[in-house]
Amino acid sequence: MAPRGPYAKGVAKREEILTTALEVIARQGYRKTSTRELASAAGLSEAGLLHYFGSKEKLFEEVLRARDTADTERLGEESDAVGKLGAIMRHNAGVPGLVQLYSTFSAEAGDPQHGAHEYFVERYGDLREVLAASIQHRQADGTISAAADPEKIATLLIALSDGLQIQSQFGLPDEPGDVLDHLIELLRPT
Predict the structure, then answer these.
(1) SS3 assignment for the chain
(2) How confident is the model at residue 5 (pLDDT cuts 50, 70, 90)?
(3) What pTM did the predictor assign?
């Protein structure tokens, strides 16, 4: 049963804000987007916008969570996490503002006192686990060398993905997803 009443309206408004924020940040970039602009785009005052999230940090953390959810929904048919990672990297080439938000926020959240620190700890842990399972599946079907340590390869794939997307902000000559595909090809058994 769906929530009803004022609570349901608050949840719906929060989702509307996140959808709007995803669009605005993707288009304008993290640094060029103020909470005032996001509030205006969502039809709220700045105080009204922050009422739904508590702080600017929490708002941007929730934008990243919404981006993760949208990626999962968009690629729902793809069961292979390694394949999904490449598809997400290709999609991200078209939303440089969200890449900028992610790379800036992930660097800032390295500080354990940062409000989004736990989000990144959880996100990286979950992603390593899912990628390691995907690598094990690929090892079982013979498309990745059995000599590769799945957990270490998963960690390297995340580092490669994050690093290539950062480099893409500085004129990387190759499509990040193509570079990932090249590495996966190198991991094939010989």
Answers:
(1) CCCCCHHHHHHHHHHHHHHHHHHHHHHHCCCCCCHHHHHHHCCCCHHHHHHCCCCHHHHHHHHHHHHHHHHHHHCCCCCCHHHHHHHHHHHHCCCHHHHHHHHHHHHHCCCCCCCCHHHHHHHHHHHHHHHHHHHHHHHHCCCCCCCCCHHHHHHHHHHHHHHHHHHHHHCCCCCHHHHHHHHHHHCCCC
(2) low
(3) 0.85
